[in-house]
Amino acid sequence: MAAGRPIDHRRRAELLDAVVDYTVEYGFSEVSWRPLAAGLGVSPNTLVHRFGSKEQMLEAVLGRLRERILTDTDDLLGERPGLAAAARAAWNRTSAPQRAAEFGLFFAVYGRALQAPEQFGAFLDRVVADWLRSLVDAQGPDVDPATATRRATLVIATLRGLLLDLLATGDRERVQDAAEAFLASLPGQDRPA
Fold first, then answer.
1. Quick one: which of 43, 107, 158, 166 has the most CB atoms within 10 Å?
2. Could you write out the DSSP letters of every residue in 99-118?
3. Euclidean distance between CA atoms 63 and 57, whole angstroms
4. CA–CA separation, 107 vs 110, rounded Å?
5. Could you tell me the pTM of the whole model?
6. Do residues 170 and 97 make contact, with C-beta atoms less than 8 angstroms apart?
7. Three-state secondary structure call for residue 172
């Protein structure tokens, strides 16, 4: 039995980035082999070879999207910035108008994952854990772990709720006002200029 072609991981990563960009632009419901392949200038077989099943490809898309979000936010933060600075950086990054399609995709996938947890277990396992770890770490070693976890959980839930409201209504002024009030209530918050 002949072995298949080895996977070129660099090419797969480039293709994955293109798939993520396509998915952000056209939406989660539009991701199917033929239109996606045509949009990327590859064959459907290439996508199957690189990703396996559609569900595996969507898992990879989610993973890369998550990596982009965390990397961008971490780059804004530096080391141990404090909870208030970390939350503000996360809010500024996620609520930026140019990120609306990306986070629209995030919430669409979140909804689908909740309906099919057996398919999207890895996404559900990490959707809170990554941000939680980052926000707990941002508080530093002197904060009681239970307190740090509770505060980080409130930040995640509040920012995601505000972001969902912003995406649903487009009422940036009202939502930004609420976000500022929340961010100002966090420990160690310096008021924005």
1. 166
2. GHHHHHHHHHHHHHHHH-TT
3. 10
4. 5
5. 0.77
6. no
7. helix
